[in-house]
Specification:
single chain; alpha+beta; 5 helices
Length: 204
């Protein structure tokens, strides 16, 4: 019995030494205020047998949409409303979707790109849609940031058609880049241009 206490102490020391600090820490929704849930309800027409990519998920866009130095979050949903959460600091967020005007079209959202489309210093949101047979519900949306209100919430205007980006194909995502120089320096038959042509990239 005289060895029992030292043995217990040794085990406790070894256990604490092996327990490493984790790189990430889970933040509960009760603290963050983020309650977004990409819930999918299957039926006779929407299920894994009829739609192979049913559970590919939605997109998540990170950007400082109200220029306060904090990164905000935009969630894209498959069957429910998209959500915009403004970062209030200390890992707390406010749902400003309705005020900002970015809840989506009710289609099957898949991806999102955060980009300053008009180079005005305000981040904009491009939402990609897919899966559904109705081409209207597959039309991508471009929310252009119109500025920040007195309440600190950015206001957006849907302008995909004005920018020629109201595409109704099946999009998973939309990477953005300033490729004007690349395309203008290549001849039309240059092999390097082929991937862009096949992808239907538009220079705006």
């Amino acid at each position: 019995m005289k060895y029992t206490l030292p043995f217990i102490c040794l085990v406790a020391v070894l256990f604490s030494a092996c327990k490493k600090a984790t790189l990430f820490e889970q933040v509960p929704s009760s603290h963050s205020g983020i309650t977004f849930n990409n819930k999918i309800v299957e039926n006779d027409t929407i299920n894994p047998l009829t739609k192979l990519n049913l559970y590919n998920g939605g997109g998540v866009g990170i950007g400082d949409f109200n220029n306060d130095g904090l990164q905000d979050i935009y969630f894209v949903a498959n069957t429910t409303s998209n959500k915009l959460y403004l970062n209030k600091g200390d890992m707390k967020f406010d749902d400003v979707t309705d005020v900002a005007g970015v809840k989506g079209s009710g289609g099957w959202g898949r991806g999102v790109a955060v980009v300053d489309i008009n180079n005005d210093g305000l981040m904009d949101i491009y939402v990609c849609y897919t899966l559904l047979d109705d081409s209207v519900k597959r039309t991508n949306l471009l929310y252009v940031n119109q500025g920040i209100g007195n309440d600190g919430v950015p206001r957006f205007k849907e302008m995909a058609k004005a920018y020629g980006l109201n595409v109704s194909l099946e999009f998973e995502s939309a990477p953005w880049s300033d490729i004007d120089t690349l395309i203008t320096e290549l001849s039309p038959d240059d092999p390097l241009l082929e991937p862009y042509v096949k992808a239907g990239i538009r220079v705006i």
